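Hi R.,

As promised, here are both runs. First protein below:
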Amino acid sequence: MFGKIDIEKTKGSLLVRNEIIEKLDKELGVKFGYSFNDLYGVKGGVVRRLKGGIVNREMMERGSNMKMYNELFNKVKEFIENLEFENYKIELNKKMDYGWYDYMRMKECGFEGNFNDYKNFRIENEGTLILKIKWEVE
């Protein structure tokens, strides 16, 4: 699955994770919390995946809504995409695994629209973020 595991790069991905979380806090005032952390193989590499969410002081004090969350997500995504870490590629996206069965359940609960409408609705209203730290293996 992984091919030959590079322990140093795996440990390095933990340091990258910690540095990203620290930079978000210090430079943007954003907390990134996660409840899921795994490794999985991709063609030619390995990915450390963190599933979590973000919050800033304003959202904690005033409460938040999806508009505020999406604006913060866009700001954080741009910030993260401009970070550079030698030997690692970083991506931040919203959860994107919406399936047919969830769509059908939503239809039964009164959702109107086709599957693409459903996906767009879910992405716009999704709070779960996926932070990926990728590296190549030999």
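And here is the second one, sequence first, then its structure tokens:
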Amino acid sequence: MLGFGRVRFPFTFMGVMALAIGLWVVVYLAAHRSLDPVAQELAGGTAVVCFGFAAYVLIRRVRRGPQH
């Protein structure tokens, strides 16, 4: 309908950004040890999800190449 043609979704960029966000959350948690336990668990869970997505995307990119 809009006629964009072939557009590839930037999964590699998303994987690198997820890795950077996960690292930022870990550094933030290390610097702010006075956060309440619930906030620490939520932030830790966010970091785990970010690292998991980054690992999936980047490992898939290395194994299958740039076209998959």
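A quick note on the second one: The chain has two helices and no strands. Let me know what you think.

Best,
J.
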